[in-house]
Specification:
The protein has 274 residues and is of the alpha/beta class. The protein folds into two domains: 135 residues, Rossmann fold (3-Layer(aba) Sandwich), CATH 3.40.50.1400; 119 residues, Rossmann fold. 40% of the residues lie in helices and 16% in strands. It has ten helices and eight strands. The strands form two sheets. It has a four-stranded parallel beta sheet, with helices on both faces. α4 links the parallel β3 and β4. The mean pLDDT is 96.
C-alpha cells in the first residue's frame, strides 16, 4: 500500500519559530520514518497568506490532501502538532477525513495531540503523565521556586485540558507548578491572585510558554517590555523571573512524543477514540 505522512501545524510568520520549533518536529518524524514521504501543511490561512506575500509558500491541509490524492496515495497518516484536543483538532480531522475514498485513498489515520488520553483505561496511555515525567520534571525547577507554564487556551472544551494537567501535577506532588492560559481561565492574573491569597512567595518564578510555537504575539504577551506583559507584571509584584523564551517544539523530549503518537497511528491504535 502506498503510504504518506502529513504533519500539520498552525504555522508561524516568524522565520526563527518555523526553523527552531516546527521544522525540528517534522525532521524528527522524518528521521523515524525513512521509508515514508513526509510533508508539512499549515492550517492558519492568515499565516499562509502573510508568508505568500513574502514569497514563502506553504499549503493548507486541504491543498496538501488534494495533491496527495492526485499522486495516488492509498494510506495517509496524519500527525497534528496541536497541544490539546478540541475544536481546532476536530475541524482539522473533519477536513481531512472528507478525502477518504477519493482517488486511491483507502485509509486515513490520525495521530493524537500532545495531550489527549488520560490513562483512564488500561489500553490507552496517559499523555499527561508522559508530559510531566519527560518534560516538566526535566526542567528541574527547585521546590523553593515556581514554574509557571502559560498556554494559549481557547473558548471550547479543549481548554479543560489545562485544568486536567494542573490536577495531574497536584496528584504528582508538583505543587510548585502552575498552568495558565492567555485566552481563558485560569489566566496568569488568576495565578498571581491565588498566590497572593495563599501568601505564596516563591524565591523565583520560572516563566515558560506551554506552546509548541512561540511567535511574536506570545513572546510579547509573556516577555515584552510593555507594562501589561506577564514579565512586567511578575516583576512589579516583586518576583525574580527566570525566562524561557522557547517553544515546546525545540525540545527533543516533545519531538519524541509526537513521533510516538504517529507510530501509534501507523499501527492503527486508538482510532475509534479520536
Amino acid at each position: 500500500m502506498k503510504e504518506i505522512i502529513l504533519v500539520t501545524s498552525f504555522g508561524s510568520t516568524v522565520d526563527s519559530a518555523r526553523e527552531n520549533q516546527i521544522f525540528p518536529v517534522v525532521d524528527a518524524i522524518r528521521k523515524a520514518n525513512p521509508s515514508h514521504e513526509v510533508r508539512l501543511a499549515f492550517t492558519s490561512r492568515i499565516v499562509i497568506k502573510r508568508l505568500k506575500d513574502r514569497n514563502i509558500i506553504f499549503q493548507n491541509e486541504i491543498e496538501a490532501m488534494e495533491a496527495i490524492v492526485e499522486e495516488g496515495y492509498e494510506r495517509i497518516i496524519v500527525q497534528p502538532t496541536h497541544l490539546v484536543g478540541g475544536a481546532e483538532f476536530d475541524k482539522l480531522r473533519k477536513n481531512i477525513m472528507a478525502f477518504k475514498g477519493q482517488g486511491s485513498v483507502q485509509e486515513i489515520v490520525f495521530g493524537r495531540p500532545l495531550l489527549y488520553f488520560m490513562g483512564q483505561e488500561e489500553e490507552v496511555p496517559d499523555d499527561y503523565q508522559i508530559l510531566i515525567d519527560r518534560f516538566i520534571k526535566a526542567l528541574q525547577v527547585p521546590v523553593t521556586e515556581d514554574l509557571l507554564l502559560v498556554g494559549h487556551g481557547g473558548f471550547n472544551v479543549g481548554n479543560a485540558s489545562y485544568a486536567a494537567l494542573q490536577l495531574k501535577l497536584q496528584y504528582e506532588g508538583l505543587r510548585n507548578t502552575s498552568i495558565a492560559t492567555l485566552e481563558n481561565f485560569p489566566t496568569p492574573e488568576d495565578i498571581l491572585e491565588r498566590w497572593e491569597r495563599e501568601g505564596h512567595e516563591p524565591k523565583k518564578v520560572h516563566l515558560h510558554p506551554l506552546l509548541l510555537v512561540c511567535g511574536d504575539h506570545a513572546l510579547n504577551d509573556l516577555f515584552g517590555e510593555e507594562e501589561d506583559s506577564l514579565l512586567s507584571e511578575l516583576t512589579k509584584a516583586g518576583y525574580e523571573v527566570v525566562q524561557y523564551e522557547k517553544g515546546l517544539g525545540e525540545y527533543a523530549e516533545i519531538q519524541d512524543i509526537y513521533v510516538e503518537h504517529l507510530a501509534d497511528a501507523m499501527r492503527g491504535l486508538y482510532q475509534r477514540r479520536l
